[in-house]
Fold:
Amino acid sequence: MFTGIIYLCKNYTLKRLIYIFGIIHIFFSCNNENIYRIKGQLSNLSDESLYIVFESPETIRVDTVFCNEKGQFSIFHEQDDELQVITIYYNDRHRWFTVYPEVGKTIQIKGDATYPQLLQIKGGRINDKLSRFNKKAAPVLKELEDLQKNNASLDGDEAMRLSTLNLELRKIMQEFVKKNPKEEASAVLISGFFTNPDEFEQTEDLLRLLSPELNDYYLVRNKWKEIDKAKTTSAGAKAPDFEVTNIYGQTFTVDSFANKHFILAFTAMWCEMCQTEVMMLDGIANKYAKDSLEILLICLDDNLEDIHEMVRQNTIQWNLVADSAGQAIQLFELYNVNSLPKCFLMDKEGIIRLNTMNGEELRQKVDEIMN
Structure:
């Protein structure tokens, strides 16, 4: 009997100690300056895996979280330095959304995973502001998402509608920035919407609407750096120098084209829109002699056998650089190329006269400066 009582007392004491230590752990966790919490529920997920990327000024960490059968998940993250953004990837990493964490605040996420920009993300100043923007822009965002799902097969009317929707969305965003110049959420929108280096003038105009208080915000600093880099390959800039070797072993730099016009054309064999006839490079090459205008193709392919076969079948002997030793990748970075096709037209002094993705625009500009 006494043994049973002692056992009960010990058992009770142990449970009480566990409870007390649990309370202490929760207390200290809640007061930890680097605890980040996210709770969410997503519908229409294709699988239960979420891939979480935690980004801070010094580190990037990756983790995996699994949703239950209802699409519910929880993220509890402790980090030594301050988190800037959390990106959550899902549906085999094909879809994602971003969260802007604040220490000590639980972020709640809910919505249809097929429309990541329409998810309700609440908790923290930036998330709350962005949610208000997304709510106002919801009809446009939803229609854009629906159209972009079939982007490869858009007909003329759909393509025109897509362009109109993008303009509407930018207008809503610009109004938001004007009304919220002191909000980090405005910087987030500018950073997210203006990703094309060729649109740096529009980006500059919006950044100037922001309060000077945001000058040190990392997204603002990064955007100004991107703009400065974009200006190095805009019309009127001196063409950035390079050194590449073509498939015949000849080395070229910008000075190799001194006293003649030249076109730097970024392409890839697998890109239908990049073919030389589509970009009107065939017509240009046949119309103008190499001693007055030369074309240097930068091909994002490294299979030299396929490239040589393509050259052999072509009636024009192209001056072509393949991606062996990462040459093409380096030039893509140097010339701010983030989509294909892309062509740069330089004059005899090595000044960029045109930066374009449009073959007809290139043809017209070549005829203009050559005549």
